[in-house]
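Title: Comparing notes on inverse folding

I've been comparing how different people in this forum approach sequence design from structure. To keep things fair, I'm posting one structure and asking everyone to reply with a full sequence. Here's the target:
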């Protein structure tokens, strides 16, 4: 895939993080997942269940693409959850990250 894309290509992975957990547990799971992402821990990411992410394969695809294209390491733009967005309670929430991989300089 990386070989067939140009400088104007955007690759987007829309992935929910922690699912249907109390806020404190969701935030902790999201932190653990982010660490795996930042470490490019493919095998560990692929073994994550829905309490962590809903599409681990999408994350690994994005990471491999970004490495092949020599993009920057992921930069966290925002981390929110459904409770903070007014879409749920602190007892049952889903986490979301907005991550950016920048073009090489």
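Reply #1:
Here's my take.
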């Amino acid at each position: 895939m990386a070989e067939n894309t140009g400088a104007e290509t955007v690759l987007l992975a829309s992935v929910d993080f922690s699912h249907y957990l109390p806020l404190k547990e969701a935030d902790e799971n999201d932190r653990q997942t982010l660490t795996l992402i930042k470490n490019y821990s493919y095998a560990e990411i692929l073994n994550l269940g829905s309490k962590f992410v809903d599409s681990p394969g999408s994350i690994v695809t994005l990471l491999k693409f970004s490495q092949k294209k020599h993009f920057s390491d992921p930069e966290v733009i925002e981390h929110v959850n459904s409770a903070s967005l007014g879409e749920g309670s602190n007892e049952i929430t889903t986490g979301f990250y907005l991550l950016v991989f920048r073009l090489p300089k």
